[in-house]
Structures are given as structure tokens and as C-alpha cells.
């Protein structure tokens, strides 16, 4: 029972502190990166890559080094969905109208 409670608190703390995957997918309407977006946002924040951060148009989490393993797991879990969506967006942008 204590493990479940601890897990719930951990997930809640990460959600409140700003999960990079959730934040980057919420703002993905601006045609930003989709595949492994949270992981890429965390890595850009950790390395100080200003160009990479501008592509997401969302603020990185306060502690990207803490968020990185959870974003990696979340991005891996939703990879089939983001890969298909990115492929559809790419094919639509390549059509000559």
C-alpha cells in the first residue's frame, strides 16, 4: 500500500513541476517536434541549447535532469502515436497543392 501511495505522490509532484512530455505535446499545434519531444526538450535545457528550446515554444521544466528519465519513459510509451502523427504531418506538408 505504501508503494502505491509513494508512486501517486511522485507522479503528482512531476506533473505539478512540469513534465516536458506533457508540456511539449500540449503546445505541439505549432508544428514543433513530436517524436521524443519531452526528452529532446529536457536535453536542450540541460545543454543550454537556445536554438533547440525555441523550437518547442514552451518553457522547459524547472529540473530537467530529474524529469529526463520520466520523459524518456513517457515518450517511449507514446512513440507509436507520435510517430504516426509526425509522419502524417510530414506527408501533408510535402503535397504540392
Assign a percent range to the helix content: over 70%
- Low confidence ranges: none
Tally of contiguous helical segments: 6
Structural class call reads mainly alpha
Q: Radius of gyration in whole Å, from Cα?
A: 15 Å
Overall pLDDT score: 81
What is the number of strand segments? 0
How large a portion of the residues is in β-strands, by DSSP E?
under 5%
Largest sheet: none
Distance between the termini: 58 Å
Order of helices and strands: HHHHHH
Overall shape: globular
Secondary structure layout:
Blueprint: H1 2-17, H2 20-26, H3 37-47, H4 50-56, H5 64-77, H6 79-94
Properties at a glance:
97 residues; mainly alpha; 0% strand
What does this structure look like?
- The chain is mostly helical.
- It is 73% helix and 0% strand.
- The protein has six helices and no strands.
Compact overview of the structure:
The chain is 73% helix and 0% strand. It has helices at residues 2-17, 20-26, 37-47, 50-56, 64-77, 79-94. The chain is globular and about 60 Å long.
Amino acid at each position: 500500500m505504501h508503494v502505491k501511495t509513494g508512486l501517486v505522490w511522485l507522479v503528482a509532484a512531476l506533473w505539478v513541476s512540469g513534465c516536458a512530455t506533457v508540456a511539449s505535446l500540449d503546445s505541439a499545434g505549432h508544428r514543433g517536434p513530436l517524436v521524443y519531444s519531452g526528452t529532446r526538450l529536457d536535453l536542450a535545457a540541460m545543454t543550454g541549447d537556445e536554438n533547440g528550446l525555441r523550437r518547442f515554444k514552451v518553457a522547459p521544466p524547472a529540473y530537467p535532469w530529474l524529469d529526463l528519465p520520466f520523459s524518456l519513459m513517457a515518450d517511449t510509451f507514446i512513440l507509436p502515436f507520435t510517430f504516426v502523427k509526425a509522419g502524417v504531418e510530414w506527408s501533408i506538408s510535402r503535397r504540392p497543392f
